[in-house]
């Protein structure tokens, strides 16, 4: 919905900093931009993307008349009416029907009950009566929030780039995050690729003393759940999804759907049409690579036609990638080595002529064990010792199918390490893994721990990061109904033995079959990304661009590439196709670092 910024700084440069930051995040909220000075050292600013209630009340920053309370926030609230009713019972009189006013009044009256909010959000809430700032990010991690702190100076923003350009932060490449990036395709957890700039973790709250600059961290308290676990057969998943879809579709602007033709997005469309019979604009990427198996757009087109939707096919080619790469990198807030970012950005560019909000199927695979690695890990968990013995011999065979080679080379003594390797581009070194697993030390080894990794690391740092960045770069809000609080709670209640026995995304596949689309549930799962390896083999202009960016990066950082990349560059690690993910990963990082002169 918006971009948010805050500066707490005594001395010259504070007003210039908030001005620069608001300008830097203007694409996140092209409909309104403003900032306020609330004290001699406190400044807040925001940019607004109008999605609900076009009235001026929600223009940021939102303050009481005496400026005792002030709010800038980013996101959407999906249980607005429930919260509004509680506030009315508490005596609140409303001036608008916006979720902004509901959130503002909720934080004034019930700052300890943030966990009751169903939505995606990050916010900065100023309480001048207590001289504090409450800064928070929702537990699902859909909306980013970054901060820089030096002494009693704090700089906070929706985007890393805004802090980098504020003039108050030192901008240096975070050398300590290069290794995590090389293996995971992103910086680790609360870190970023810029030294000293951190990100607030999902579900974290930061309470900041505006006098001293001292901070304390806490977790958003979750709402108590009615049951510890629930059997899959006892869930009414279609009803829950239908309710979530209706909540996420509520808006005063046109809403479209990112329709890949796979299970997740197809079920969203089927659920919506069953409830409303209102056709949507749908957006699907195609690559002109049908012979290589890239046929998602055909299934999407067929489904859209059945439901009388306005289907938009977004054609992406190697030529487009080369031509628009500089612009894409200029929009990239933080590097993530996932080509879904470029695909999503192309879709957003095409969609903004018709839609201001895009619905996606993000989160379904992580919640309901839909990735191929989940099925591979289930196989491994049936007999880890046996698979370890087989892998010790099998990994040395040079002509194994890629999937089997990945499986064998992932297996380690620790079952959790084995799964992390399955998610990574290459087997993660033990020293690096030791650092990763500290955040999961309290969880018992097993399938639930593996899903926790995908839900808390991969989903947040990769999927949601590229989704938010790509769409907000074009002034479009992205929403993910599968991450609705009620669906997340339901998924968390599925016991491990049910997850181990059920087929991939079983509740979704069954719901799709019931909706009359069994053929979609039976299709082989394709990743949401570019055919980069094939394009590298075919297009000389793309090879030149990739080599130029990587060599420019290597000239400045000659000792930073890991052995896998050095071997690939020297031609010792096979063809481009088998190393496409590795190459794309370093291509993104190199281009981003080159653009920012890091």
TrEMBL record:
**Enzyme active site:** 2
**Pathway involvement of the protein, from the record:** Amino-acid biosynthesis; L-asparagine biosynthesis; L-asparagine from L-aspartate (L-Gln route): step 1/1
- Keyword entries, A-Z: Amino-acid biosynthesis, Asparagine biosynthesis, ATP-binding, Glutamine amidotransferase, Nucleotide-binding
Gene3D superfamilies tied to this protein: Glutamine Phosphoribosylpyrophosphate, subunit 1, domain 1 (3.60.20.10), HUPs (3.40.50.620)
Taking every annotated instance into account, which residue ranges of this chain make up the domain Glutamine amidotransferase type-2? 2-211
Q: Name one GO biological process term.
A: asparagine biosynthetic process
Q: Which Pfam families match?
A: Asn_synthase, GATase_7
Reply yes or no: does the keyword Protein transport apply.
no
UniProt lists the family membership as follows: Belongs to the asparagine synthetase family.
PANTHER family recorded for this chain? ASPARAGINE SYNTHETASE, ASPARAGINE SYNTHETASE (GLUTAMINE-HYDROLYZING)
**Which InterPro entries does the record associate with it?**
Asn_synth_AEB, Asn_synthase, ASN_synthetase/amidase, AsnB_N, GATase_2_dom, Ntn_hydrolases_N, Rossmann-like_a/b/a_fold
Which domain of life does this protein belong to? Bacteria
Example GO CC term: the record gives:
cytosol
State the name under which the record lists this protein.
Answer: asparagine synthase (glutamine-hydrolyzing)
Keyword Cytoplasm assigned to the entry: answer is no
Gene encoding it? ansB
Q: What residues does ATP bind to?
A: 360-361
């Amino acid at each position: 919905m918006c971009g948010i910024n805050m500066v707490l700084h005594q001395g010259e440069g504070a007003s210039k900093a908030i001005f620069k930051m608001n300008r830097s995040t203007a694409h996140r909220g092209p409909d309104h931009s403003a900032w306020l000075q609330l004290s001699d050292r406190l400044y807040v600013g925001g940019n607004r993307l109008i999605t609900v209630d076009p009235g001026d009340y929600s223009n940021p920053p939102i303050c009481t008349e005496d400026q005792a309370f002030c709010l800038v926030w980013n996101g959407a609230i999906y249980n607005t009416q429930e919260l509004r009713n509680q506030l009315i019972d508490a005596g609140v009189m409303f001036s608008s029907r916006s979720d902004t006013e509901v959130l503002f009044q909720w934080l004034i009256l019930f700052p300890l009950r943030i966990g009751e909010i169903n939505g995606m959000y990050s916010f900065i809430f100023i309480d001048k009566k207590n001289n504090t700032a409450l800064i928070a990010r929702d537990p699902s991690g859909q909306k980013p929030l970054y901060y820089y702190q030096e002494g009693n100076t704090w700089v906070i923003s929706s985007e890393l780039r805004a802090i980098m350009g504020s003039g108050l932060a030192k901008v240096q490449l975070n050398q300590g995050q290069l290794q995590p990036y090389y293996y995971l395709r992103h910086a680790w957890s609360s870190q970023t690729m810029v030294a000293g700039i951190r990100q607030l973790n999902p579900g974290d709250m930061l309470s900041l003393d505006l006098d001293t600059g001292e901070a304390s961290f806490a977790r958003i308290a979750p709402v108590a759940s009615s049951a510890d676990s629930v059997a899959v057969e006892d869930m009414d998943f279609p009803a829950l999804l239908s309710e979530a879809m209706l909540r996420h579709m509520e808006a005063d602007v046109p809403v479209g759907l990112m329709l890949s033709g796979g299970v997740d997005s197809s079920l969203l469309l089927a659920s919506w049409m069953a409830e409303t019979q209102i056709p949507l604009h749908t957006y699907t990427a195609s690559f002109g690579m049908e012979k290589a198996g890239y046929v998602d757009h055909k299934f999407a087109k067929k489904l859209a036609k059945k439901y009388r939707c306005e289907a938009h096919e977004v054609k992406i080619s190697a030529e487009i990638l080369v031509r628009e790469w500089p612009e894409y990198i200029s929009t990239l807030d933080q590097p993530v080595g996932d080509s879904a970012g470029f695909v999503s950005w192309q879709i957003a560019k095409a969609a903004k002529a018709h839609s201001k909000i895009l619905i996606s199927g993000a989160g379904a695979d992580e919640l309901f064990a839909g990735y191929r690695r989940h099925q591979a890990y289930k196989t491994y968990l049936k007999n880890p010792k046996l698979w370890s013995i087989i892998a010790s011999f099998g990994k040395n065979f040079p002509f194994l199918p890629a999937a089997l080679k990945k499986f064998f080379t992932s297996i380690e003594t620790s079952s959790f390490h084995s799964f992390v390797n399955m998610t990574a581009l290459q087997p993660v070194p033990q020293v690096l893994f030791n650092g990763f697993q500290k955040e999961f030390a309290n969880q018992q080894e097993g399938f639930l721990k593996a899903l926790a990794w995908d839900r808390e690391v991969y989903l947040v740092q990769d999927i949601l990061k590229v989704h938010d960045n790509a769409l907000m770069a074009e002034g479009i809000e992205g929403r993910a109904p599968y991450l609705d609080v009620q669906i997340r709670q339901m998924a968390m209640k599925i016991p491990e033995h049910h997850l181990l026995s059920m087929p991939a995304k079983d509740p979704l596949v069954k719901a799709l079959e019931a909706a009359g689309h069994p053929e979609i549930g039976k299709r082989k799962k394709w990743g949401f990304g570019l055919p980069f390896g094939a394009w590298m083999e075919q297009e000389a202009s793309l090879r030149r661009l990739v080599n130029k960016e990587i060599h420019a990066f290597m000239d400045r950082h000659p000792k930073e590439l890991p052995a896998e990349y050095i071997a690939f560059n020297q031609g010792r690690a096979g063809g481009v196709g088998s190393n496409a993910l590795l190459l794309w990963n370093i291509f993104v990082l190199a281009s981003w670092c080159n653009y920012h002169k890091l």
